[in-house]
Amino acid sequence: MSSTSTSTAHITVLYFAAASTTLGITEEKIPIPEKGFDLSQLKDLLVERHSRDNPTLRKILDSSQWSVDAEMVGDDEDLTKVELGDGVEVAVICPVSGG
Amino acid sequence: MLSPGSSVEGTLELPGAICSIKNTLDPIENTIEQVSDDRFGAVVTFIGTTRNSFQGKVVTKLEYQAYTKLALKTMATIITEARNQTAEFQAVVQHKIGVVGVGEPSIVIAVSSPHRKEAFHTCEFILEEVKRKVQIWKREYYEGEDERQAEWKSNV
């Protein structure tokens, strides 16, 4: 992936539950390309970014849902078609256990 | 204990219902008062509490986190779906975040309706949907085990 160090676009990724316990963080701000960046690419980017220290991350992300700006991404939705722009808030939604 | 910045208190009101995520749940008498309506003859309440064991292990406490802004939206959707089934009811749904000790309540649901059948049904419907969909997570701590190894549970 080409360098995004000059990118002015950023997204915030929120982690909860097992995702945050595994990574040791609850959120991070990530630079992204200004155009054409999708949720499938974000998933790969997060794995690339964190997997060395957190080998279980891929498995956690594979079993999680996603939300973008507090709207759930449907289970049947093609992640490559979910485009992410500057300022968006993405959350990793691990299997829930409320109640 | 990591606490997400998005796991905060919040309340969302819609016609005839109040959904809240709270650090401290209201006393049940207050919640009953909130749903009481002279037009309605039935009040049903559900209180979910922390059990002291799970699969033979002694539970010392539970910890809950929420993605509050989304959890509240999802609760509102559940209320709207309940209203498609039963037009007339008032509901209060409260979920606690943070530590919930053994015997302590984590969720309270109160529903009032003209008659008992709808009140029972609506309360159960809301509970089952909250457990299925709302963006809240529970971590279970066992006696004698390292807290850092405590597992986040899943309702599926």
UniProtKB/TrEMBL annotation, chain A:
<dbReference type="InterPro" id="IPR012675">
    <property type="entry name" value="Beta-grasp_dom_sf"/>
</dbReference>
<feature type="modified residue" description="1-thioglycine; alternate">
    <location>
        <position position="99"/>
    </location>
</feature>
<dbReference type="InterPro" id="IPR016155">
    <property type="entry name" value="Mopterin_synth/thiamin_S_b"/>
</dbReference>
<dbReference type="InterPro" id="IPR003749">
    <property type="entry name" value="ThiS/MoaD-like"/>
</dbReference>
<keyword id="KW-0547">Nucleotide-binding</keyword>
<comment type="subunit">
    <text>Heterotetramer; composed of 2 small (MOCS2A) and 2 large (MOCS2B) subunits.</text>
</comment>
<comment type="similarity">
    <text>Belongs to the MoaD family. MOCS2A subfamily.</text>
</comment>
<dbReference type="InterPro" id="IPR028887">
    <property type="entry name" value="MOCS2A_euk"/>
</dbReference>
<comment type="function">
    <text>Acts as a sulfur carrier required for molybdopterin biosynthesis. Component of the molybdopterin synthase complex that catalyzes the conversion of precursor Z into molybdopterin by mediating the incorporation of 2 sulfur atoms into precursor Z to generate a dithiolene group. In the complex, serves as sulfur donor by being thiocarboxylated (-COSH) at its C-terminus by UBA4. After interaction with MOCS2B, the sulfur is then transferred to precursor Z to form molybdopterin.</text>
</comment>
<dbReference type="Pfam" id="PF02597">
    <property type="entry name" value="ThiS"/>
</dbReference>
<keyword id="KW-0501">Molybdenum cofactor biosynthesis</keyword>
<comment type="pathway">
    <text>Cofactor biosynthesis; molybdopterin biosynthesis.</text>
</comment>
<protein>
    <recommendedName>
        <fullName>Molybdopterin synthase sulfur carrier subunit</fullName>
    </recommendedName>
</protein>
<keyword id="KW-0963">Cytoplasm</keyword>
<dbReference type="InterPro" id="IPR044672">
    <property type="entry name" value="MOCS2A"/>
</dbReference>
<keyword id="KW-0597">Phosphoprotein</keyword>
<feature type="modified residue" description="Glycyl adenylate; alternate">
    <location>
        <position position="99"/>
    </location>
</feature>
Automatic annotation (TrEMBL), chain B:
<dbReference type="InterPro" id="IPR036563">
    <property type="entry name" value="MoaE_sf"/>
</dbReference>
<protein>
    <submittedName>
        <fullName>Molybdenum cofactor synthesis 2</fullName>
    </submittedName>
</protein>
<dbReference type="InterPro" id="IPR003448">
    <property type="entry name" value="Mopterin_biosynth_MoaE"/>
</dbReference>
<dbReference type="Pfam" id="PF02391">
    <property type="entry name" value="MoaE"/>
</dbReference>
